[in-house]
Amino acid sequence: MPDESAAKNPAPSQSPPKRRSCWLKWLLIYGAVLIGCVGFYVYFWLLHPEGEGPAGPAVSREPFASVWSERPVVLLGFGDSITEGYGASAGHSFFAMLETNPADDFAEMVGVCLTAVLPHLTSENKAVSGSTSIEHIEHHLPRIETYSEEMFGVIVVTTGGNDIIHLYGRTPPREGAMYGATLAEARPWIENYEQRLDAMLDGLGSKFPGGYHIFLLNIYDPTDGIGDIRHTGLPAWSDGIKLLAEYNAIISEAAEMRDDTTLVDIHAEFLGHGIHSRQFWRSFYRSDDPGYWYYLNLEDPNDRGYDAIRRLCLIEMARVLPELLNAEANDDVTE
Fold it and tell me: What's the helix, strand, coil split of the chain in %, to 5?
């Protein structure tokens, strides 16, 4: 005979607990995926570890083992904050390290500096942080003295970077503060920069009747060539990378066309050390050193970035200056 009490009180259904368990499982999966995505984004886009140790290419010690010239030589810095050394710790701007080694320099760089090969070297840094190429030609160049004929000039120049990024779009784009401009809008300003740069290089050379050589640095890109500046918190600017390319083409052409000017290509060396430095899937990824080389303000280098620039300059100087100074000395003897 059937159990009437069982019929009146059927066993509770197991479906609701199972549904709750299934719902909880998927919630945990979705949460884990979301946390993973956020962690991925933070790790590969927002965190920028600088790394440690030497930065940039190795510099051969051989050219620095003997004196290049006994002539009086002045190392002249001209341009903007990169040459001025903004963001560098004491003694670690590239300009200061060109002249002499900081006390805590890397062992392989000790003695690899200009004072080691130019015993009568002096230095003057006329660069001004935050300045544009307009200010360089109109205000800063006229203030540089004309040196004596005994003095040879080794000139390092950074100019044009602030023309592009100045004011970060807080005002409508204009010449000298082009952030946010289209390439078409900026075309006349770019052409004016080309003329200013030629006049600037001519003007610097005219200050050294006894001879000189200019080392002209191009402009790096903190976005590693991608152009997604919005990931730094700044306003998006689709044509920004195009304007940068135009400026760098002008700088490269100026160096190529002039016997008195050598390009120092910091743009190529800094690719892979900007805001995407951790992104291993990029073609520019530097597996040997994915460190971030920019200062807190994004537009200037940090100490490792300045180290890399110092090394690039020394490589070019060692390639150009010994032969040039020897030629100058031979001309003096002939005369």
Answer: 50, 10, 40
- Among 249, 247, 295, 303, smallest CA distance to 275 is for 295
Q: In what order do the strands lie in the sheet with 73-79?
A: 121-125, 73-79, 152-158, 212-217, 261-264
Q: Give the residue among 18, 19, 60, 56 at the shortest CA–CA distance from 273.
A: 56
Whole-angstrom Cα distance, residue 243 to residue 219? 11
- DSSP H helices, the chain, are 4-8, 15-41, 81-84, 94-99, 133-135, 161-165, 183-206, 240-257, 266-270, 303-334
Strand, helix or coil at 123?
A: strand
Question: Residue 147 has which token pair?
Answer: 């040196």
Q: How far apart are CA 178 and CA 165, in angstroms?
A: 6
Q: pLDDT digits over 90-119, tens only?
A: 999 999 999 999 999 999 999 999 999 999
CA 132 – CA 148 distance, rounded (Å) = 28
**Residues 154-180 pLDDT 10s:** 999 999 999 999 999 999 999 999 999
For residue 2, pLDDT over 60 is answered with: no
Read off the tokens for 151: 């003095």
Give the torsion through C-alpha atoms of 42, 43, 45, 47, to 10 deg: 90
> Beta partners for 174?
177
